[in-house]
Amino acid sequence: MPDKPAAAAAPPIRVLIVDDHPVTREGLAIRLSREPDIRVCGEAADIPEGILRATEIAPDVVIVDVSLKGGDGIELVKRLRARLPAARALVWSKLEVFRLLGEGLSTNEIAGQIHLSPKTVETYRARIRAKLGADSGSEVLRQAIRWVIENS
């Protein structure tokens, strides 16, 4: 019985990262590059650059920070869907909630700024608390403040 030919490996998932924080973009790119089936094909810092890069490289997935300087990540996703309907979008918001907590915003203020419901922000806060192994919301807040200070 002849051997079956090996199935061709699927091409890697092409990812564009759009975030206005260079350290976040670089860290995410490094993390994703460790995955054999993912290839970071571009980075952008804002909406105009994100649209330009996405149009140039036609990524499979666009990872977008929900809160970009000079604009809203959700607006970028809407624009990209109109131009590249096959591309999928992943909106990056849990870290954004942590950062905004560290900047002293309330749950309602965070919800308004990143266009989520207060209930969703509370859910993210609970998940952050669990991931950090924090005993209280106050401990999460202290860690968030420290993170903002260290990363600004």
Automatic annotation (TrEMBL):
Q: What GO terms are given for molecular function?
A: DNA binding
Ranges of residues in domain Response regulatory: 14-152
Tell me which residues bear 4-aspartylphosphate. Answer: 65
One of this protein's Pfam families, by short name? Answer: GerE
Keyword list, A-Z: DNA-binding, Phosphoprotein, Transcription, Transcription regulation
Residues in HTH luxR-type domain copies? 85-152
Its Gene Ontology biological processes?
phosphorelay signal transduction system; regulation of DNA-templated transcription
Listed Gene3D superfamilies: 3.40.50.2300, Winged helix-like DNA-binding domain superfamily/Winged helix DNA-binding domain (1.10.10.10)
Q: What is this protein called?
A: Transcriptional regulatory protein LiaR
The gene it comes from is: liaR
